[in-house]
Design goal:
This protein is α/β, with parallel strands linked by helices. The protein contains 7 helices and 10 strands. Strand 4 and strand 5 form a beta hairpin. Helix 4 runs parallel beside helix 6, helix 5 crosses helix 6 and helix 6 packs parallel to helix 7. The longest helix is centred in the C-terminal third of the chain and has 16 residues. 35% of the residues are buried. Bound molecules: adenosine-5'-diphosphate (ADP) and magnesium ion.
Length: 231
């Protein structure tokens, strides 16, 4: 089907319809992490997802990013149901639509910044030039670290590199799971400002966070408790 590769002109609206997620373990009771979530995300803007630990925030983000399967319900991507998506369709969706940013940065310490960024594309069978890597780094205001290794950099710099790595794909949707959880206040502000700028430039940015600062950056805030959205 490879719908995503052939049809790249759409506006990116994602709609979750009654999404439920149950984790089944071999022993013990199953966990209902999402209990019927209905929500629509638009073209651009910065949306924060708030909620207590264990409320289902990461589950929601992983399902949105195609990193995990939903148990029931449907995700409609630009009018198209994902119920019959094959693994190839999900791959294409992840590779062309989604940029994911994690709390722990997930950079490889033995590789330079340049190689970390290039590797994420090479895993998809794509290549990019040094100039394209520099361009992505400029977007996070870091263009002098190309040949350095992550362990020579601060936490804030590492997270900006992780953002650059997410941007190299030119994703339409950026998902960030507690991206400032390991950072101090100043670095947090910088990361939020970068995400805000990206959201103004046409990216749909969705961020899970516990920060008290989210109100000053958010276009939209959603709250989740016990696997359900609350007003
Ligand atoms: P949050 O990110 O809001 O802290 P999560 O989405 O990680 O919450 O988790 C929601 C619920 O699902 C929790 O009860 C958690 O223990 C459970 N859960 C999350 N991931 C798994 C998993 N892989 N297997 C079993 N249970 C899980
Ligand atoms: Mg979480």
């Amino acid at each position: 089907m490879l719908y995503f590769i052939y049809n790249r002109k759409w506006c990116n609206v994602i709609e979750l319809k009654d999404i439920k997620k149950t984790y089944k373990s071999k022993k013990g009771l199953p966990t209902e992490a999402l209990k019927g979530v209905n929500i629509k995300f638009g073209d651009k803007g910065l949306c924060f997802v708030l909620g207590k630990s264990g409320s289902g925030k990461s589950t929601l983000l992983n399902i949105l990013g195609g990193l995990d399967n939903y148990t029931s319900g449907d995700i409609i991507i630009n009018g198209k149901s994902t119920k019959n998506f094959t693994e190839t369709d999900w791959d294409a969706y992840r590779n062309t639509y989604i940029g994911f940013i994690f709390q722990e940065f997930n950079l490889l310490d033995n590789y330079t910044v340049e190689d970390n960024i290039k590797l994420s594309l090479e895993l998809q069978g794509k290549k990019c030039s040094e100039e394209e890597v520099k361009q992505a780094l400029r977007m996070v205001e870091l263009d002098d670290v190309l040949k350095r290794k992550p362990n020579e950099l601060s936490g804030g710099q590492k997270q900006r590199i992780a953002i650059a790595r997410a941007l190299i794909n030119n994703p339409k949707i950026i998902l960030a799971d507690e991206p400032t959880g390991n950072l101090d206040e100043d670095n947090e502000k910088m990361i939020f400002q970068i995400l805000k700028d990206l959201s103004k430039e046409g990216k749909c940015v969705i961020v899970v966070s516990h920060s008290n600062e989210v109100k000053s950056y958010a276009d939209k805030i959603i709250k989740i408790a016990n696997g359900k959205l609350v007003k």
